[in-house]
Write a structure and sequence with these properties.
5-stranded mixed beta sheet, D-Maltodextrin-Binding Protein, domain 2, 3-stranded antiparallel beta sheet, Arc Repressor Mutant, subunit A, elongated, 296 residues, alpha+beta
């Protein structure tokens, strides 16, 4: 490995070629020539004493040895790049950012992200998964995830971005059929759209410590599903107010309870980079925090 450390250009060229899919694409990304990329990789292969690629005129495929080497080297180079990025004064968002957030938050944030955040950071490529499930941050290779509510993953660095007001809402048709409840006890008599987490219906908790275990004919595992079912008169839904504010203003949903009796839930950014947070994560988190303050 001592000799291998004398091949930094070859290591970088190798990883960039794999990620780009060809020497020419890697050269374009690095601002150099395909010949320079090829020569750096040839010197690396000579140092290793093995072929890393199966070369042909049309394709660039890794050998088994090349694939194993990439799996070990690529994360190390990314860690070095992320560490430098985190401490670089005035550093901007660069490279690829893999993120995940709940679908209904994504519905609200996709416009400002695409019209404001990305145009401000021309060197950033964003892969955004809209999913209510709790993804495996490390196992699935996410740089940052945005989650609403509590988290038990102590190995992740957590930053609270906002406190989100929660509401109970129902369609006007459901209110006409069942009446408008005035107390939590009366709420229990209404059908609910149940929010499922790992196959279990989550209770609705109130500021006074009481709770309702929802009963209803349909359970769903996403905020978008709960909102759609509530709009269709299937039951009362427990949702972030920001995701149904326009529905309430249009009269398509009626607010039955809100911040006066329901606790707010934190919106958190979670990542596995420890104290050295890469600039791309910090800047996106800052943007999400500001966007949520604007919506509130």
């Amino acid at each position: 490995m001592g000799n291998l450390l004398n091949q930094p250009a070859g290591l970088i060229a190798f990883v960039r070629a794999v990620e780009a899919g060809s020497f020419s694409a890697a050269a374009r990304n690095a601002g150099t020539t395909p010949s320079a990329i090829s020569k750096s990789i040839n010197r690396l292969e000579h140092e290793l004493g093995t072929r890393l690629f199966r070369r042909s005129t049309r394709t660039l495929n890794l050998t088994p040895e090349g694939a194993a080497f990439f799996d070990r080297i690529a994360p190390l180079l990314r860690d070095i790049d992320d560490s430098a990025d985190a401490i670089r004064a005035g550093g901007g968002a660069r490279g690829r950012l893999r993120a995940s957030m709940p679908g209904e938050l994504g519905r609200l944030l996709i416009k400002p992200i695409t019209t404001e955040f990305l145009p401000q950071h021309a060197d950033l490529e964003l892969d955004l998964a809209l999913a209510d499930r709790h993804v495996d941050v490390i196992g699935e290779g996410y740089d940052v995830v945005f989650r609403v509510g509590s988290t038990a993953e102590s190995e992740l660095k957590s930053r609270t971005l906002a406190q989100l007001e929660m509401v109970l809402v129902a369609s006007p048709d459901l209110i006409r059929r069942h009446g408008r409840p005035q107390t939590p006890a009366q709420l229990r008599e209404l059908p609910f759209v149940r929010y499922l987490h790992h196959g279990r219906s989550l209770p609705v908790r109130f500021l006074d410590g009481s709770r309702i275990v929802p009963a209803g004919r349909i359970g769903l595992d996403s905020g978008s599903g709960l909102r759609a079912a509530a709009l269709n008169g299937m039951g009362v839904a427990h949702l972030m107010k920001c995701t149904v504010r326009e529905d309430i203003e249009r009269g398509e949903l009626v607010q039955l309870a809100g911040g006066e009796c329901l606790p707010s839930l934190p919106l958190r950014a979670l990542h596995a980079f420890g104290e050295l947070t890469p600039a791309r994560i910090r800047l996106l988190s800052d943007f999400v925090a500001q966007a949520m303050r604007s919506m509130a």
